[in-house]
Design a protein that fits this description.
It is a single chain. The protein is of the alpha+beta class. 29% of the residues lie in helices and 36% in strands. It contains four helices and nine strands; from the N terminus they run E-E-H-E-E-H-E-E-H-E-E-H-E. It has an eight-stranded antiparallel β-barrel, surrounded by four helices. Helix 1 packs antiparallel against helix 2. The chain starts with a strand and ends with a strand.
Length: 199
């Protein structure tokens, strides 16, 4: 099943590779602004890193500035903030630059911890295949949520560092993502264009 976009959702993905005491402080801060805080992983053809994923509670809060300060203070990079919907932009301008990117969100069946670990390994294999065969670098952000339901997100966010436009991404990403989706038994797929900033 495929659905359209939710016009009001904003969420963030935060690097979680720091020491436990740092993450405790980070989670304490983001709990003021976020809800449904989940620990998860970012998977690439080259490895796995820990992340914290959370939804932003309300519109027009200064979450980008807050995360930028945390990133600088604790050397937490990368951090990402996504906004689904053109009407859901910061009330006040931020120093970070926003881009328009394609996003794919997948909801997977309920998994146990063991099944989730196996799923992560399968994802890594699929991403390596796409990198080797299609020459497309894909990151998957995954977490195991309520009742064991697994959520997967991907963004066409690769870009040339010298690029100054608003639309970023690489050719072939959409086609490669269709192949990734075909490898798994998804319960729901959402495709949309979102506003994206990388701190």
């Amino acid at each position: 099943m495929e659905k359209g976009k939710n016009p009001l959702q904003t969420y963030a993905i935060v690097d979680a590779s720091a020491p436990a005491e740092v993450l405790q402080e980070v989670e304490s801060v983001i709990s003021i602004y976020g809800r449904r805080i989940r620990r998860g992983f970012v998977l690439t053809p080259h490895g796995v890193n820990k992340i914290i994923f959370f939804e932003v509670k309300k519109k027009h809060c200064q979450i980008v500035d807050v995360l930028a300060k945390l990133a600088e203070m604790y050397d937490l990079y990368p951090m990402y903030v996504m906004q689904e919907g053109k009407c859901h932009l910061p009330k006040n301008p931020t120093e970070t630059k926003w881009y328009l990117v394609d996003e794919v969100k997948m909801t997977m069946p309920v998994m146990t911890e063991e099944e989730f670990e196996q799923f992560k390994s399968s994802c890594m294999h699929v991403l390596k295949e796409r990198y080797r065969e299609d020459h497309v670098f894909i990151k998957l952000f995954v977490y195991r949520g309520k009742y064991g339901v697994v959520h997967v997100m991907a963004f066409n966010s690769e870009r040339d560092p010298l690029y100054t436009g608003m639309d970023i991404g690489v050719p072939g990403w959409k086609d490669a993502m269709v192949k990734v989706e075909a490898e798994f038994k998804t319960e729901e797929v959402q495709r949309m264009c979102v506003r994206y900033t990388n701190l």
